[in-house]
Predict the 3D structure of the following.
Amino acid sequence: MGYFDSLVEKFKQEPELETAFGQHIHWGFWQDPQQATGELKDFGQAANNLSKLVLKLAQVPEKANILDTGCGFGGTINLLNQTYSHLKLFGLNIDRVQVEKAKEIIQPKNGNSVEFIHGDACQFPDFSQKFDIIIALECIFAFPSRERFFAQAHHFLKPGGKLIIVDFLISPKILLFWSFFETQILSRMITNTYGSKATQVVQFIGLDSYKKIAQKTGFNLV
């Protein structure tokens, strides 16, 4: 069983881990790395910093409908819930345990509504509304198909809506080497570390590939 598959149980055994990974399970960001002291809480703070940066780029409109795909324990949804008012917030995750944990720890406030849904980012549930913003924060590499996800996102976005992706991009200079490393080594390493529930294969791509997917599915890169 991979680390993320058993993370909720590990919280019970080692409560201090929840300080670092209790809401966000993506990597993080420091504008000034010297601010980090190396303590366990720095992981949670760095991850929250990255979510803040994403929301700044999103320019969240009033009374927005927002979907966070691959939402983990709902950290980015919680940041929206704490910071903004009168939003309709949805978190979608393929891991039912993470969804239940998010429901447990995050309660609506500031006139927001919050809903966490167990489901597949490549086959959205039958939402009754469309979204102003859809987010995929360091999770898309584990989706079965970026193109299917983009197509689903395009269908469920309002006209002028935004799809915000945070991902690791591969430089063209190492593409051939990376293809071998990814299929033969990296997928197994990530699956063993982070768990097997989402996928047995991960795939990282470069910016040119993203441009092609965006064009094919009707998006404009900004």
